[in-house]
């Protein structure tokens, strides 16, 4: 580790450690007389899913090959902490790993992601799961090979956690889940501090990637067979504000739109407070930007929205939606809603129901409020009783189901372009794909069409998906 040949600058330093890690893996391969395997499991959002592709890229470069289960030589959990139940799942899974490790003492266990950026879970893992080998966070995934080398050299729990960073390391290996579509980070972190949300504490301050780096990455992806990109950021609408030469998200989209060979562009997540007219205009005039906008509402009550530090009110949200619909009448709108935020009254909840009815969301992700320590909302001791939350949650869910299936039926009988994504898990004569509006379609077709955009007639709407046939 004190080698004077270790490069100081990134990513050269990591390529050096990839070579060092390879030596340890080669040694173990020889000792065991077989290949070494890895298993990565991802909890949480698309951001974590993309981070796991980077993790897989590094592991495969080092010489590990994929395994189908935790019975592997390297097991990593990429964790989420946005709600309490995400944390509990990880503890359960970790518990089961200790017996696998007893049978394979050379096994390495690593945990990373949002949950590790919090003191409580970190201490719990240090105390109760001492068989874990490597712990790192959301800011230093790029150093995985360096941490693996340290773990082989130090033979004790290696913990490398950064509270924040302004570092963005480009050009490390990535192993994509799908050959034809990919997430692309355009920014990291969040500056919004919505009162209930742990994300700004575990993912740090907002920083954008340079547009040149993003464009170059997408061009490389397209050359490698990618037809659809999903641009990722906690609040893509504030992209570019922190760059030396600031540029807007709409401007970035225009540049991405011009990339030859790219067929579809998606992005998430949009904060309503920062959604510009310029963006609506760029979306409306692009054939590649998908006809879908995920616009988290969180609550329909202006009082609660203020408490939540969302910087818009009920009327503002509705006005924004009508502006979007005017420019793009067929756009599919989806949202996130929290039920049972501290002090939520029946009247507040009815306001949420009212917005849901007025907007007519094509889908909505509904969450029961979960107290995250360290956030402002966690200081409140005015909690809504569980039975009332349950009642509101069920009512909301039923309404969303009713509205979304009503909307889905409108496309029945039409022929739409579908990106064929995979063989259907239950019936291997069917392929599963997505419309531009993000709806799922199952249709009979040969798997040679996977990765292609094909016309499909939507025969039957089943609420959250369609049954179709190749047109
Ligand atoms: N409790 C419940 N839901 C939450 N979300 C974020 N934090 C919490 C919390 N503490 C939801 C928000 C966000 C989505 C990703 O998760 O709706 O948009
Ligand atoms: Fe959390 Fe709000 Fe940032 Fe979204 S915008 S990650 S809800 S703080």
What is the radius of gyration?
23 Å
Largest sheet strand order:
2-1-3-4-5-6
The pLDDT mean sits at: 95
* Global shape: globular
* Bound small molecules, deduplicated: 5'-deoxyadenosine, iron/sulfur cluster
| Computed structural class | alpha/beta
Explain the overall architecture.
With 471 residues, the chain is an alpha/beta fold. Helix content is 37%, strand content 21%. The chain contains 13 helices and 19 strands. It has a six-stranded parallel β-sheet, sandwiched between helices. α1 crosses α5, α8 packs parallel to α9 and α12 packs parallel to α13. The longest helix has 24 residues. The protein is globular. It starts with 11 loop residues before the first helix and ends with a strand. The mean pLDDT is 95. The structure holds 5'-deoxyadenosine (5AD) and iron/sulfur cluster.
In a few lines, what is going on in this structure?
The protein contains 13 helices and 19 strands. The protein has 471 residues and is α/β, with parallel strands linked by helices.
Describe this protein with a few key phrases.
binds 5'-deoxyadenosine, six-stranded parallel beta sheet, 37% helix, binds iron/sulfur cluster, alpha/beta, 471 residues
């Amino acid at each position: 580790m004190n080698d004077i040949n270790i490069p100081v600058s990134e990513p050269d330093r990591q390529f050096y450690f990839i070579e060092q890690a390879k030596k340890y893996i080669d040694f173990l391969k020889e000792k065991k007389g077989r290949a070494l395997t890895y298993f990565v499991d991802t909890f949480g959002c698309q951001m974590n899913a993309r981070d796991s592709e980077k993790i897989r890229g590094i592991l495969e470069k080092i010489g590990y090959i994929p395994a189908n289960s935790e019975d592997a030589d390297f097991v990593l959990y990429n964790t989420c902490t946005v709600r309490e139940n995400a944390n509990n799942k990880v503890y359960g899974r970790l518990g089961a790993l200790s017996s696998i490790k007893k049978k394979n003492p050379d096994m390495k266990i690593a945990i990373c992601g949002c949950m590790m950026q919090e003191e409580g879970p970190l201490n719990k893992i240090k105390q109760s799961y001492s068989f874990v080998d490597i712990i790192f966070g959301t800011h230093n995934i790029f150093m995985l090979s360096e941490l693996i080398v340290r773990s082989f050299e130090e033979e004790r729990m290696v913990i490398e956690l950064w509270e924040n960073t302004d570092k963005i390391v480009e050009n490390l290996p990535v192993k994509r889940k799908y050959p034809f579509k990919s997430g692309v980070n355009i920014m990291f972190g969040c500056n919004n501090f919505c009162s209930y949300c742990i994300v700004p504490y575990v993912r740090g301050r907002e920083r954008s990637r340079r547009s040149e780096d993003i464009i170059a990455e997408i061009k490389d992806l397209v050359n490698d067979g990618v037809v659809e990109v999903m641009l990722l950021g906690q609040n893509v609408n504030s992209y570019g504000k922190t760059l030396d030469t600031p540029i807007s998200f709409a401007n970035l989209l225009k540049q991405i739109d011009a990339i030859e060979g790219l067929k579809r562009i998606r992005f998430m997540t949009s904060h309503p407070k920062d959604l510009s007219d310029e963006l609506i205009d760029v979306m409306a005039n692009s054939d590649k930007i998908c006809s879908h906008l995920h616009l988290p509402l969180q609550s329909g009550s202006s009082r609660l929205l203020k408490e939540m530090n969302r910087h818009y009110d009920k009327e503002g949200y509705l006005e924004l939606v009508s502006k979007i619909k005017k420019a793009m009448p067929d756009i599919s709108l989806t949202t996130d809603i929290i039920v049972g935020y501290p002090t939520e009254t029946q009247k507040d909840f009815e306001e949420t129901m009212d917005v849901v009815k007025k907007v007519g969301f094509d889908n909505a992700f509904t969450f029961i409020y979960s107290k995250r320590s360290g956030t402002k909302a966690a200081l409140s001791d005015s909690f809504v009783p569980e039975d009332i939350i349950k009642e509101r949650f069920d009512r909301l869910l039923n309404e969303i189901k009713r509205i979304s299936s009503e909307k889905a039926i409108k496309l029945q009988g039409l022929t739409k372009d579908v990106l064929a994504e995979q063989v259907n898990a239950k019936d291997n004569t069917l392929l599963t794909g997505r419309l531009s509006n993000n709806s799922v379609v199952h249709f009979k077709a040969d798997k040679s069409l996977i990765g292609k955009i094909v016309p499909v007639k939507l025969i039957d709407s089943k609420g959250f998906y369609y049954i179709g046939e190749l047109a």
